[in-house]
Amino acid sequence: MAAGDYKALEGVGNTLTIGSTLFKYVTLGAPGYDTSDKIDNTTLDNTEFETGQPPELKMVTGFSFSVLARPDNLAAIEAQIGVNQELHFGMTGLGGVTFWGYLKSWTPEESEKGTDWKATGEIVVTNMNGSNVETGPVYAAS
Questions:
Q1: Fewer CB atoms < 10 Å away: N or C end of the chain?
Q2: pLDDT at 62
Q3: Domain spans of the chain?
Q4: What is the CA radius of gyration of the chain?
Q5: Please, what's the b/e burial string for 102-133 (b: 16 or more CB within 10 A of its CB; e: otherwise)?
Q6: Which residue from 122, 126, 81 is spatially nearest to 100, judged by alpha carbons?
């Protein structure tokens, strides 16, 4: 592969850490970036067009995931619901990202004979650390 080309194998060796619980995830919609709508700066002096400018702040979007789970982790996960904390996901061969947010939801899937038990969840990114200081995501290459 050429420099800058990446190949991440879905779910192979990738991890998601919530609190002190480490999961190998099967699927993950990683956080993205978004801004709000344009800031309208149209005035009475405008003669033909409304004018605007982009917002200066950006938002890190939340994401959903599906992980291999274990029933003995339920109590640990329940304690993490709604707790703003440092979260981390690692991507095989690509490094990882650490960010502040909370586990919004955790839903165990139906268990079937001969298959791994899975759960789905949703993370909300807050960008606010435990001292209430604005803290964006930190990326680290492997």
A1: N
A2: 86
A3: 15-33+59-134
A4: 20
A5: bbeebeeeeeeeeeeebbbbebbbbbeeeeee
A6: 126
The tens digit of pLDDT for each residue in 121-137 reads 999 999 999 999 999 99
Q: How many angstroms separate the Cα of 98 from the Cα of each of 35, 57, 73, 107, 108?
A: 21, 20, 22, 23, 25
Q: Which amino acid is at 95?
A: G
- Looking only at Cα atoms, what is the longest distance across the chain? 71
pTM here is 0.78
- Answer whether 37's CB lies under 8 Å from 75's CB: no
DSSP string covering 68-112: E--GGGHHHHHTTBT--EEEEEEETTTEEEEEEEEEEEEEEPPP-
Q: What is the pLDDT of residue 12?
A: 58
